[in-house]
Every structure is written in C-alpha cells, then in structure tokens.
Amino acid sequence: MELKPPRPLVDEGRDAVLRAQGLRKRYADLEVVAGVSFAIARGECFGLLGPNGAGKTTTLRLCLGLIAPDGGEIELLGEPVPPRARVARRAVGVVPQMDNLDPDFTVAENLLVYGRYFTIADGTIRARIPELLDFAGLAGRASSRIQTLSGGMRRRLMLARALVNDPDLLFMDEPTTGLDPQARHVIWDRLKQLLARGKTILLTTHFMEEAERLCDRIAIMDRGRFIAEGSPRDLIARHVEPHVVEVHGDGLDQWSSAEGARLAARLERSGETAFCYAADAGPLLASLDRAAGLRYLHRPADLEDVFLKLTGRELRD
C-alpha cells in the first residue's frame, strides 16, 4: 500500500509548545529517525504510536535534548534544542519507560531529591508532597520504602515525581506498560485531570485503547517515519472499513476461501483467526449464522485495526 505524505500536524498559527522539523538520527547504518516533522499545541495530548524499534523513544530523547540530532531543528517551550535544552527542561516533566526510582529513599525522599534537580527549595517541595501523593493515590505512603510498593504504586509515584516542578509539558514513555487494568485506569484518570488543568502531554504507548481515550491527535511511526496522522476517529475513518468480524473455529479455512474472501472488503488471517473488514457486515453475519463450527465477534473498527493495517501483523523484535 502506498501511503500519502503526512499532513501538517498543527496549524502554524496555533500556540505550539514543541516543534520538530526534519528531525534525523542515525546509529551506524540504521537511520532510526528519518525526517520527522511535527508540532504539539498547548493543552493537547499528542500520541506517538509505533511497533518496537519504530523510533518513538529516540524521538522523545531528541526533543528533550538528551541526544543530539544528525539533522533538523527542535524548539521546546520556545527554546532551541539542544543548545538550550537544560533551560527548557525546567518546565518539563518526564515519566520514562523504565522505573528509575531510588530504592534507598522513601517515597517522600524520592520526590524531595528529584525536586532539588530543579533547584526548588526543600521547604517548597515538602509543602507540595502531600498534594502530589494525594493526586497519585498514594496518601499515607510518604514514609514507605520503594521496595514495598506495587508496580501500579511505583508508576503513580513516577507520575507524581514528574509533577514536582509543576511542568507545562509532560513526556510520558509507555506510562502504563506492565500494569493491571485497575492501575491503568487510575493513571488514565490522572492524565485526564492534568489535561483538564491545561497541561500538555506527549505520550507513547502500545495500548490502542489508551491512545483512543487520551489523545487529541496521533502520529503512527514506523521505521523512523510518520506514516499516518490525525485524531483517532479520523484515522479510523480514513484507513479501515467501519465493521470488523473476527472469525475462528473448525472449518475456518474452507469458509474463508469460499465465503469470507467474497463477502469481506478485506480479509486478514492471524493465527487461527480471520479478520473480515466490511462496510456492511450483514452478508458476512448471515453467512456465519449458516456455518457450523464457526464462532465470531462483530465489532466496530478501532485504532488497533488501523495500526495493524499500516504496520503489519508480523512480530517485531
């Protein structure tokens, strides 16, 4: 499938807190970021999706000034990056992909020490700790050791830590990876509260539901390039048929060849399941009701269908 060149992400007249133009980064013979351009408007949640190795985390590190680009320009909160990245990062919060809390400190001490990196007075940080812990659902845990916290508690503490300096912009690299559904929903609720307060979020995630719930706009990245951009609803409408019928069971091969391929606008196989995409699911459902041994699920198309169509269903290492 030939993909159209991406459209500009943000009207140049809007108030962008982050801009990147022609961003490139190469490691040896591999160009991991290959000419990426985007802008994020103040107060929005911008999602960056892609398979493993697509270049998402490298793009975040470039925008933070943690690594130098091989080409392109970056402006973070009005400051050129990397020359004035340290200045810009004073108004940025970061939730990294991996837990890097200090196990030698208590919950409160982790917040206190982190705040010192921003030259915030200890008294100011101590005064904010109860509010931060309450926001993260960790009230009463100030004196707890890190080793006693569950995975969900640690991720919520990472979020509280990222808010120590009251940032304008939050970089969140897969903030809910490894969490159970309850903890994930708590994080989503907190992020929605931050957006309601006017914060701006740059989010990478592998959870399509997370992106659909939180993001105003999304860019799908693959092999260092943006291959699709838009709101979740716009991406679904532009790239996939509205109805999906997932079929599995005995006789799937025969039904797929005889009926599925004829009645579906597009049919994809993944293991023991056939994904049938259609503008009208009626004929597919009628056929399946007559087929013995087959089970099916009829659902509306979602962002995961877009993601898999554009990046493929094969496993990425």
Structure description:
The protein is α/β, with parallel strands linked by helices and 317 residues long. The chain has two domains: 16-230, P-loop containing nucleotide triphosphate hydrolases (Rossmann fold, 3-Layer(aba) Sandwich), CATH 3.40.50.300; 241-300, Alpha-Beta Plaits (2-Layer Sandwich). It is 35% helix and 28% strand. The chain is built from eleven helices and 14 strands. The chain has a six-stranded mixed sheet with strand order 6-7-8-3-9-10, with helices on both faces. Strands 2-1-4-5 form a four-stranded antiparallel sheet. It has a four-stranded antiparallel sheet with strand order 12-13-11-14, covered by helices on one side. α8 (232-239) packs across α11 (303-311). It starts with 15 loop residues before the first strand and ends in a 6-residue tail after the last helix. 36% of the residues are buried. The model is unreliable at 1-13 (pLDDT under 50).
